[in-house]
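tmp note - Glutamate decarboxylase
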Amino acid sequence: MASNQPQRGDRSVRDLEVNPLFSREPMTVPRYALPDGEMEPATAYQVVHDELMLDGNARLNLATFVTTWAEPQARRLMAECAEKNMIDKDEYPQTAELELRCVHMLARLWHAADPRRVTGCSTTGSSEAAMLAGLALKRRWQHRRRAQGRPADRPNLVMGVNVQVCWEKFADYFEVEPRYVPMEGDRYHLSPAAAVERCDENTIGVVTILGSTFDGSYEPVAEVAAALDDLRERTGLDVPIHVDGASGAMIAPFLDTHLVWDFRLPRVASINTSGHKYGLVMPGVGWVVWRDADALPDDLVFHVNYLGGRMPTFALNFSRPGAQVIAQYYNFLRLGFDGYRRVQRTCRDVATRLAAQIAALGPFELITNGGQAPVFAFRLREEITNFTVFDVSIALREHGWLVPAYTFPPNRTDLSVLRIVVRNGFSHDLADLLLEDIRRALPRLHRQHEPHRDPGDAGAFAHGIKT
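out:
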């Protein structure tokens, strides 16, 4: 006798899962261990999405140099290329071709004598690019010393104490003595005389920064090069320069065309920049370019037989997505020279205008005004003793703004500042909103009897070397 009851597994009579999303959520979700079983994709998404709401708003993060906005077309291209592994150049030859085009575009932008002979590559960011440049400096110095029959076991690198922490890491990881030039008085970065004083026969190079992370200022690359030229004439020491242009190498070519800082100086061996800073790409891409093949020793380049192709590679990373490189090429194609100039000009205009307006509020004094990299630092006037820059930073967080407060490195650890980075997407309108929130915070801060925050509250914004 046939049964009239629905059979187990009969999809036509299976109950629909119509419970609201949050009632499907497990009572507990392990944070540091894999769950025992699966959960619905929508539930997993909502759990992660809700936790991410606790992050700050990236567009209001005035601490970061990293691009926080991109055109929809750039985002679409990145999504289309997310699964492409940059290292598989034989499988993704056009991605490799677009990377090469970007290198040649940068070589021309930085006035390489023969852009066809330069060598360079993309990286995950300017930190990796800086380490590759440092390795090339070290290896060139070692080859030269060994050819002369001299010891090559005590290399050193000269740089300002304002360098980004990646240079401290490079020195530690690759056993190079860092020789830091401290800040003195109103000099907040490297000086030619101080750099030359620290050079000797073991110096592999001098690092100059085009856009200091501490205050946005350019270091005097041409003057350092001239001082090193004089050193060679006097002593025979021939010390190359690497330009860390993480930010400024994508600003100066468009806005400061009179400034000589790049491959027009014969002493500049290599330059790095961040594609994901003022290159206008979402995080993570950087670039490093050497003036010619001689500047990158061939024994640092690995020729790998990988997935059917013989491929040269020089990088600290192997597998990484091609999406950011494609977005960089899109930006170069989309904006061209005039487009980049307009974007960077707008950023600088916003920075200089906002800096002047903050200075006019009364309690603040500018360290820089955003006239080089669109970045400026400012401090409290000496007569302000009842609140600190750290109090100001916390007050602005209440309105969603992330404005870092920190102390400068030796010998100016007495100097505490706030710093604002103006990026593409931080408009005049947003600058006005920030200024209004600063104005709102000041009356309450003035009513304080004593400071509530000190440098101990600035740990999250540490970005320079630790000395």
